[in-house]
């Protein structure tokens, strides 16, 4: 697929894009993996992820780390950024946000392996860290630690 053909099929790359109103209406794009015969890990880190507590309406903050071993598809990064931004005014619990993002990406990409870690900053004195994964890590792939420390004021 040529670059011109590729950009014709993408919703955001190479265009101005408004932030989606909510995660359900956000468009996630995928692009062909140029190395589908090779096992490797792609990592996205969102150090300033925000959502809204569905009970209090207060903001919740997290560091998200998404690792995946692609098969035929890669997630297009601009669409991923806009999708994650759509949670900014979305009311959902930490567990729901983290798992929903993982499931949406897994459904779109059908990766060999995907894991997401949501490292949520405390509200009410308790940090909640949420982890979800699907698939098996390929045998010869190096999966580094997420680099996020267990909660100790996360500085």
UniProtKB/TrEMBL annotation:
Pathway in which this enzyme or protein is active: tRNA modification; tRNA-queuosine biosynthesis
Top EC class, one word: oxidoreductase
Localization annotation: Cytoplasm
Active-site residues annotated for this sequence: 53 (thioimide intermediate), 60 (proton donor)
Main location: cytoplasm
Pfam family, one: QueF
GO molecular function: preQ1 synthase activity
Keywords of the record: Cytoplasm, NADP, Oxidoreductase, Queuosine biosynthesis
Amino-acid positions noted as binding substrate in the UniProt annotation, renumbered to this chain: 75-77, 94-95
Organism superkingdom: Bacteria
Entry's transmembrane regions: none
Reactions performed catalytically: 7-aminomethyl-7-carbaguanine + 2 NADP(+) = 7-cyano-7-carbaguanine + 2 NADPH + 3 H(+)
Region span, Disordered: 11-30
Entry EC no(s): 1.7.1.13
Family membership: Belongs to the GTP cyclohydrolase I family. QueF type 1 subfamily.
Record's function text: Catalyzes the NADPH-dependent reduction of 7-cyano-7-deazaguanine (preQ0) to 7-aminomethyl-7-deazaguanine (preQ1).
Protein name: NADPH-dependent 7-cyano-7-deazaguanine reductase
Annotated source species: Camelimonas fluminis
């Amino acid at each position: 697929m040529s670059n011109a053909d590729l950009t014709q099929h993408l919703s955001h790359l190479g265009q101005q894009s408004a932030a989606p109103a909510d995660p359900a209406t956000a468009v996630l794009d995928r692009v062909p993996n140029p190395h589908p015969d090779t096992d490797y890990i792609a990592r996205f880190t969102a150090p300033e992820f925000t959502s809204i507590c569905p009970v209090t309406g207060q903001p919740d903050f997290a560091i998200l780390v998404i690792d995946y071993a692609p098969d035929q598809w890669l997630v297009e990064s601009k669409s991923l950024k806009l999708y994650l931004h759509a949670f900014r005014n979305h009311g959902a619990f930490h567990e729901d946000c983290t798992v929903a993002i993982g499931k949406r990406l897994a459904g779109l990409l059908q990766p060999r392996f995907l894991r997401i870690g949501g490292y949520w900053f405390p509200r009410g004195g308790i940090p909640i860290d949420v982890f979800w994964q699907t698939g098996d890590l390929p045998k010869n792939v190096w999966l580094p630690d997420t680099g996020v420390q267990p909660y100790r004021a996360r500085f």
